[in-house]
């Protein structure tokens, strides 16, 4: 079966374009070791001549490739011949110059109501996360134009696998956490809470003269501070 990206030429031969790793091809052309491995590859012209010799296919490679260009786009090598010759040439080329698909995308659920908190003013919060993790993080644009019932909770993280895991943990750590609970109060004066962690925001509201509603707000990553805050409140309210 002939692959979809193989084109039949007028002379009866076939043609296929094979994408190759730019950094490795540059290393072949310049003779400078590839930075990710330090391995010195065979000269590019010698390499493609050997591919032609062993496969029988004609190989057209970008000999005038601009070295050190700003673009990170991987170039293509054109292979012409029979289907069998192309497959053999592709095998040789891919073994040395195959593009590494290092970027993956993770989709995670974060409630849409806290997206703006994570993004931060003028996007500064999420930009800091992207800089520190080397990942691209995308929040659904449609949330700006839809009602709350139809908003999406899905957030996309793109980048190398290890970086993505760091970004996921970072997003979870800076996601706001809200705890609400009621505590009894039997004293005539209003409760005063002192020595409270600055990382946690406390709101006290009297439901009745003998019952107070407590609301704690903090980032999920400040779990130790949250536990400390709960202990302080329990002590102030004389909860055993």
TrEMBL record:
Residues 102-176 form the K Homology domain. SMART domains: KH. The keyword Chaperone does not apply. PROSITE patterns: KH_TYPE_1. InterPro entries: BICC1_KH-I_rpt1, KH_dom, KH_dom_type_1, KH_dom_type_1_sf. One of its GO terms (molecular function) is RNA binding. This is KH domain protein.
């Amino acid at each position: 079966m002939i692959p979809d990206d193989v084109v039949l030429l007028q002379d009866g031969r076939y043609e296929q374009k094979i994408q190759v790793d730019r950094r490795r091809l540059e290393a072949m052309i310049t003779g400078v070791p590839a930075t990710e491995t330090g391995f010195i590859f065979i000269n590019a012209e010698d390499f493609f001549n050997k591919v032609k010799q062993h496969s029988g296919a004609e190989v057209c490679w970008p000999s005038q490739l601009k070295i050190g260009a700003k673009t990170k786009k991987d170039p293509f090598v054109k292979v012409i011949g029979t289907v069998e010759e192309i497959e053999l040439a592709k095998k040789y080329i891919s073994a040395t110059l195959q593009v590494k698909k290092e970027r993956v995308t993770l989709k995670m659920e974060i409630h849409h109501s806290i997206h703006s908190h994570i993004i931060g003013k003028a996007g500064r919060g999420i930009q800091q996360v992207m800089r520190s993790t080397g990942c691209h993080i995308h929040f659904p644009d449609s949330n700006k134009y839809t009602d709350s019932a139809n908003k999406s909770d899905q957030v996309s993280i793109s980048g190398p696998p290890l970086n993505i895991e760091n970004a996921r943990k970072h997003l979870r750590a800076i996601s706001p956490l809200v705890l609400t609970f009621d505590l009894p109060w039997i004293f005539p004066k209003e409760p005063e809470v002192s020595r409270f962690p600055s990382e946690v925001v406390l709101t006290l509201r009297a439901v009745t003269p003998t019952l107070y509603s407590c609301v704690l707000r903090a980032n999920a990553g400040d779990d130790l501070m949250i536990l400390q805050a709960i202990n302080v409140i329990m002590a102030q309210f004389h909860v055993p």
